[in-house]
Amino acid sequence: MTPMDSIRYLKHFLRCGFMSIDPTTGHVKAYIGGPNFSHFQYDMATSGKRQVGSTIKPYLYTLAMEEGLWPCDKVMNLPVTLKDGNGNNWTPRNSSKSRIGQEVTLRWALANSNNWISAYLMGLFTPESLVKLMQSFGIRSHLDPVVSLCLGPADISVAEMVDAYTAFPNKGIRVDPLYVTRIEDANGNVIAAFTPQMHEIFSESTAHKMIYMLKSVVDGGTGGRIRGRYGLTMPMGGKTGTTQNNSDGWFMGFTPSLVSGVWVGGEDRSIHFDNIAEGQGASMALPIWALYMKKVLGDNTLGYSAQENFNIPSSFNANEGCEENVFVE
To answer: Backbone phi, then psi, for 218, in 5-degree steps?
Structure first.
């Protein structure tokens, strides 16, 4: 075996970045940068950055909800053409042909990761406004203010994404990741103590709307297999993500007490699957999230419960006037 053969062999290993955070305290509960540090020393959770695909869409929908839109607002499911920064036409494609030419709710569009509706929403605002909001979410990676940003071409780390998603179950308040709570000397004296840093990003009402829509992703949208195949029944929300050439698979998911994110792909961007059935986030990343949560809920010493629900007032009704089924047809 030549040195090039060895390099080629290692490069074809799929890599994974994973992080899990308590959305109320910021405590990092789990953190995986790679499979084996002896052979794979590049941290794919904090240092590695990859295109996030459709996991970016909840930020765009948050912007829409903050501007007064509701999950049940309806839009025609038709191709949308926008002007890019050079004045050229940009028309995204959809991977699904479901309900073309019909009115669909924003809830359905997010649950089914519809690109046309994302482009429609992007046309209501500006790329700069989306960049500004994402930066308030704690995204520190470079973001180009272009119309295609709404579909997730930006390279962002798992740690940034998980940090950002803490705002959804935490009533619009993002919490910085906390890796160390205190430092003690050899005698047990506390040298330094650290407390969570909170940032209010959006209104509590918008948080309720987003939870409602992101629950639809796993209750019948692109993340629906988490219910059927993996049998997870607890209240949760999430978003799948898949990038160009099926190179990156993402799943961002949260319960009231845990926000966890998974990226799966090759360390080299040229490593990819031949088809979307294998390369999509629902196939690559979602199973890891599901198996992790099954382990967490199966260990009573950890204190997590499948019965814990989101703290949403009974008076809040995001479903008012919405009669359609969110499930993929």
So the answer is: -90, -15
Containing structural domain, residue 75: 18-33+44-302
Q: Is residue 312 part of a domain?
A: no
326 pLDDT tier (thresholds 50, 70, 90): very low
- 261-315 residue pLDDT tens: 999 998 877 777 877 777 788 899 999 999 999 999 999 999 999 999 999 998 8
Region of 99 (left: φ > 0; alpha: ψ -120 to 50; beta: rest) is left
Note whether residue 8 is domain-resident. no
Whether 1 is in a domain gets the answer no
User: Given a cut of 50, is residue 329 above it in pLDDT?
Assistant: no
Which of 209, 208, 235, 237 is CA-nearest to residue 223?
A: 237
Give the total number of structural domains in the chain.
Answer: 1
pTM above 0.85, yes or no: yes
